[in-house]
Amino acid sequence: MKQVIMGNHALSYGAMLSRVQVIAAYPITPQTQVVELLSEMCADKTLDAEFIKVESEHSAMAACIGASAVGARTFTATSAQGLALMHEMIHWAVGARLPVVLGNINRAMGPPWTIWTDQNDSLSQRDTGCLQFYARSNQEVLDSVIQMFKVCEQILLPGMIILDAFALSHTSEVVDVPDQKLVDKYLPPFHPRYILDPKEPHTFGGLTGPDGYYELRYKIEEAIQRAKSLINETGKEFGELFGRAYGMVEKYKLDDAETVLIASSTIASTARIAIDELQNEGKSVGLLRVRVFRPFPAEEIRELLQSRKKVAVIDRNISFGHEGIFAQEIRSSLYNCKNKPPIWGYITGIGGRDVTVENIKDIVNDTIKSDKPSGDIIWKGVRL
Amino acid sequence: MERGKTMKLSIPEEELVGSGHLACQGCGATLCMRYALKALGQNTILDIPACCWSVIDGPFPHTSVKVPLFHTAFETAACVASGIRAGLDVLGRGETNVVAWAGDGGTFDIGIQALSGATERNDNIIYICYDNEAYMNTGIQRSSATPYGAWTTTTPVKHFKKMPKKDLVRIMAAHRIPYTATASVGYPEDFIAKVKKAKEIQGTTFLHIFSPCPPGWKSQPEKSIQLARLAVSTCYFPVYEIENGEKYTVNKVIKKPRPVKEFLEQQGRFRHLTEEQVNGIQKNVIVSYNELLKKAGLDLEVHVEIKK
What is the full per-residue pLDDT of chain B (308 aa) written as tens digits? Predict the structure, then answer.
């Protein structure tokens, strides 16, 4: 059924349709509507779940971990400082191999206090082993929650669905809220093999020395690598059932474009208009959206970017002391390729600064005009 | 040997802690677990944050408890228990006991926020804190449960701890927690009765167990039980319970307290204290105990003569 809903509620509906069993959350702007709607759903029994109103995000993730360890499907949502506070427990969920799913509304980190979007909060979780999907529409937010459970419960790792503050979280869009029966057909109930059960007692997470720890980490990497094909397969299956397919990346008018623009989240939505206009102007450009950041779509990047003339990457984030994080990852994916194109790494939109069609066209035109990048980072729109 | 046939046991016979654990000799924390599990029974899930028990249980793939155990991060004993409880309830496994099991550091310091949160929500969990009065697992650093006067590796003799121990039970009572109690491993019958009582109560229950630590207290391993009992008979660690944050009951009323010196002098951690400092501790112990007796509605005031 089509409804007009904001991105935050798309997360709530995604969790509801996934039949989550335990929710633990703590309020933070701009995440609040996610949990407000879920509270209502639990109160009126639209959703048969336990909602623990914890006293911090750290406890939210910890409570999800406890619930997941007994075999319940669990969900939480947060932003910025909240996600940073969860950090230790995201590592814990990964190490304990618990498929907790969370929504993160991308919000810039303080200080100064800010509530607007950028990606530094979620990208700071890069090395935890938690999956990261960046959505570009409210429809994709809802669909990604369902898909994330399906992927995470097979590989036993947590996953994060990421959406831009305000640009999605508080923006109403038409969303096709799928039929519960169809979702049930797609997403089976969660029945993990090993749970906390007095009838079959096991100890989880006991002290492990160098003889065992190394292999446990190897297995996490093996699992997250397996997620790559699973994401493409389950995304295709999603398309067959619901008419909307998803993969690791999304191509937009990419074909044999000489210059490829790479973006993520809502900037990638705006970029579609920029690409349309640039193509109308006769320019050979196309768009590649990185939807999944962890695991990183290195194979797709190599396949789609080799032999291109130029690549422009837009980062709404900055790894201080180095460069934009998507640019970094794309550069490293291509490093061993023979025909690697030069990469222009642009930083823009930090702290929720608007990124318009004109800004994106300017970035692409800048790339087309220049022979080589002026540096590892090209800042756009800094007013000093 | 067929135990229990010739002698009536005062505590349950079932053993849910196996031998081969990694505790130090004379460890109170290990007895704590043994007694608690006797009261709780097999249908129990434990979650344990960083503490001595993270090690005592044994390294992977070994374990020394016969119930499921989830190791978790330092500050998360209570909230992981809340999650386990919610998960069990939603899955229709509500009859299983959920026990958060933490040391004093994980309870009084880093875990107090999550404990307060779970207690305010009145989540149906049992929280058991075994208190050995310092961060013993990391090498005897002071916690807010370390008493006045104690040496630790972060409160060296020249700068021993000047602040009193945090009164956590009163903090729990201020939450109007349905049931909170103190117990000592020196009195297993009383301890087990309290765990059984906690088990029957819907809502949060908090048990604070006094648990001697020979390496941390610089005491003799064979003296652990004696110390655990002396702590009670000197009124240094009274055993009592509070229902709904209001109704105080002193479970072992000490009419004639033994001098606290008898408890302190067996522990190297107090060896540096002057007579005056010991007398100061003695005075505070009696003042606190008389306050407790008053709260419990007992018409009794105790004294210990301080020899000059």
Answer: 555 567 788 999 999 999 999 999 999 999 999 999 999 999 999 999 999 999 999 999 999 999 999 999 999 999 999 999 999 999 999 999 999 999 999 999 999 999 999 999 999 999 999 999 999 999 999 999 999 999 999 999 999 999 999 999 999 999 999 999 999 999 999 999 999 999 999 999 999 999 999 999 999 999 999 999 999 999 999 999 999 999 999 999 999 999 999 999 999 999 999 999 999 999 999 999 999 999 999 999 999 987 66
Yes or no: say if A369 and A285 are a contact pair by the CB < 8 Å rule. Answer: no
| Nearest-by-CA chain B residue for A60 | B79
In a domain, B148, yes or no: yes
Closest partner residue to B75 (CB to CB) among A52, A58, A67 is A58
Examine the domain organization and report whether A96 and A221 are in the same domain: yes
Q: Which of B72, B96, B119 to mutate to test the interface with A (most CBs of A within 10 A)?
A: B72
Q: Enter the DSSP assignment of A309.
A: S
Cα B147–chain centre separation:
14
CB nearest B59 (choices: A48, A69, A207): A207
Domain CATH number, residue A349 = 3.40.50.920
Contacts of B125 in chain A (CB under 8 A): none
Q: Which residues constitute the domain of residue B287?
A: 28-295
Query: Do the domain assignments include residue B89?
Result: yes
Alpha-carbon distance values, A186 to A50, A149, A338, B303 (Å): 23, 10, 41, 73
Domain assignment of residue A352, yes or no:
yes
Tally of domains in chain B:
1
Give A-chain residues touching B86 at CB under 8 angstroms. 22, 24, 50, 52, 63, 66-67, 72
Q: Which of A242, A270, A291 is the last residue of a domain?
A: A242
ipTM: 0.97
CB contact under 8 A, A52 and B73: no
Q: B269 Cβ partners below 8 Å, 6+ apart?
A: B150, B151, B152, B216, B217, B218
**Cβ contact (<8 Å) for B79 and A63?**
yes
